[in-house]
């Protein structure tokens, strides 16, 4: 606890925070650091955003902040929020700059029909904190007095690693159902466990998520998947029934197993693939932002299995073509969640291709097959590498090693061919204009047909050179014309 308070104190004394606190105090207003920055500082996590609250009105906030900032904006004025970019000098004389948001105390009311509150400004810090989502986010540090304000015992919950709402969970989630998705995100992001009453309220009120806009649902799902370890949050969504409304394909992976037919637990397998894909992502690209496309593809890669499940004689279960079916289902779901076109296209393509490698593990591919694999993956090749490796969750060490060695070999083959042939830009030896010149034809369908034939020739044989490509093209054209 002493360490937590020390970290919070260090944040409060940082140049930008101290400069703002002095300015509001000099103007006669209350001023507090609030919410996520307080929580993260006490947990020893990196603080990304500085959020403050005050009894000053939006106009009064602007009057105080304008002389301190080189830019400010009031896009959130109707909600009492003013944003600004503020600079201050540290002890060494270096200039520090950060963006901050300062919000007037709020005492909102909800109608239970939408999640949009009737905005009302409040009178006290305590009433402002009482309306917040979870107790660990309902703490504030009064500045410059350095007094911790914690009316909902958030410190105790923080130390215990518990997610709990300041008011009753039913009331809190009734006011704003999006908070249920935030509970899943915080469970993953912070590693906290929701209290029993919080989980039960999520189950009871899951259907109320329907009043939340698709865009906000998508945003929370994205934030969840981009945490360091999303598994706990996804499990909470599934266990409470919220996933049935957000990503129903995930709970559908919990396939029934009878006494005569056995198969891997597809739901648990998918969560493990997600875990392993994140591990590969961190190993290969440490310090880079989370790869939403890879993570979404890992989570959804087997969603075609329920629709393709077939019970065979002898107790086996097959899922033929679940890659193709899964790609279509992913496209449909991500479109409904209003993801951007690139994300939809790339996730669907990764799912469609995720089984392609396993043919290689059964026997070495020809150079032609390797070229086609690279061609089909295109810019998704490295993500496909990581997804395919992550898809190996067998406990059979010999099988896992065999697959790992096979993929090492494939990657080495790709690297060698890439060096020899510039595989990242596989094109025919002749372009469209040259095809027209050689064959004496005008632009049209026949040029495209010849181009595709030459591309297949290139993939089968590697670079031919212009003269040999022209010879073969003329022979093909003569045969085709005859």
Automatic annotation (TrEMBL):
Pfam families tied to this protein: HD (PF01966), PolyA_pol (PF01743), PolyA_pol_RNAbd (PF12627)
Organism taxonomic ancestry: Bacteria, Bacillati, Actinomycetota, Actinomycetes, Micrococcales
Name this polypeptide is given: Poly(A) polymerase
Keyword presence, Transferase: yes
Domain of life: Bacteria
Domain HD/PDEase: residue ranges: 262-405
GO biological process, one term: tRNA processing
Protein source organism: Okibacterium fritillariae
InterPro entries documented for this protein: HD/PDEase_dom, HD_domain, HDIG_dom, NT_sf, PolA_pol_head_dom, PolyA_RNA-bd, tRNA_adenylyltransferase, tRNA_CCA-adding_enzyme
Coiled coil: 400-427
Endpoints of the signal sequence: none
Keywords, alphabetical: Coiled coil, Magnesium, Metal-binding, Nucleotide-binding, Nucleotidyltransferase, RNA-binding, Transferase, tRNA processing
């Amino acid at each position: 606890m002493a360490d937590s308070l020390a970290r919070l104190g260090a944040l409060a004394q940082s140049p930008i925070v101290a400069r703002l606190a002095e300015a509001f105090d000099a103007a006669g207003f209350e001023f507090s650091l609030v919410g996520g920055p307080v929580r993260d500082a006490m947990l020893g996590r990196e603080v990304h955003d500085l959020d403050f609250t005050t009894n000053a009105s939006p106009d009064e906030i602007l009057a105080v902040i304008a002389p301190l900032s080189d830019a400010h904006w009031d896009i959130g004025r109707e909600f009492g929020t003013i944003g600004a970019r503020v600079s201050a000098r540290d002890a060494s004389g270096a200039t520090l700059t950060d963006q901050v948001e300062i919000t007037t105390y709020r005492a909102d009311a909800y109608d239970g029909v939408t999640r949009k509150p009737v905005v009302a400004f409040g009178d006290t810090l305590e009433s402002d904190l009482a309306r917040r989502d979870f107790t660990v986010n309902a703490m504030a540090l009064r500045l410059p007095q350095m007094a911790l304000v914690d009316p909902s015992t958030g410190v105790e919950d923080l130390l215990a690693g518990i997610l709990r709402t300041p008011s009753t969970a039913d009331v809190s989630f009734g006011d704003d159902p999006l908070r249920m998705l935030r509970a899943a995100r915080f469970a993953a992001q912070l590693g906290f466990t929701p209290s029993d009453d919080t989980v039960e309220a999520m189950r009871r009120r899951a259907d109320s998520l329907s009043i939340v806009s698709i865009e906000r649902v998508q945003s929370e799902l994205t934030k969840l998947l981009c945490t360091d370890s999303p598994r706990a949050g996804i499990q909470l969504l599934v266990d409470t029934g919220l996933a049935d409304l957000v990503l129903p394909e995930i709970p559908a992976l919990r396939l029934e197993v009878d006494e005569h037919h056995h198969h891997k637990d597809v739901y648990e397998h998918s969560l493990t693939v997600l875990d392993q894909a994140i591990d590969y992502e961190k190993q290969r690209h440490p310090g880079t932002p989370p790869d939403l496309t890879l993570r979404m593809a890992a989570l959804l890669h087997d969603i075609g299995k329920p629709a393709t499940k077939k019970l065979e004689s002898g107790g086996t279960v097959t899922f033929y073509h679940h890659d193709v079916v899964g790609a279509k289902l992913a496209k449909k779901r991500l479109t409904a969640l209003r993801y951007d076109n690139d994300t939809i296209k790339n996730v669907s393509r990764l799912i469609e291709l995720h089984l392609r490698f396993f043919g290689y593990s059964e026997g070495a591919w020809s150079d032609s097959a390797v070229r086609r694999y690279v061609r089909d993956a295109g810019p998704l090749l490295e993500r496909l590498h990581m997804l395919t490796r992550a898809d190996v969750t067998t406990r059979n060490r010999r099988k896992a090693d065999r697959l790992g060695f096979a993929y090492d070999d494939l990657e080495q083959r790709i690297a060698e061919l890439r060096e020899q042939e510039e595989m990242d830009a596989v094109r025919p030896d002749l372009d469209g204009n040259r095809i027209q010149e050689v064959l004496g034809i005008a632009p049209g369908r026949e040029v495209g047909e010849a181009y595709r034939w030459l591309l297949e020739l290139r993939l089968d044989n590697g670079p031919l050179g212009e003269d040999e490509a022209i010879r073969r093209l003329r022979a093909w054209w003569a045969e085709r014309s005859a």
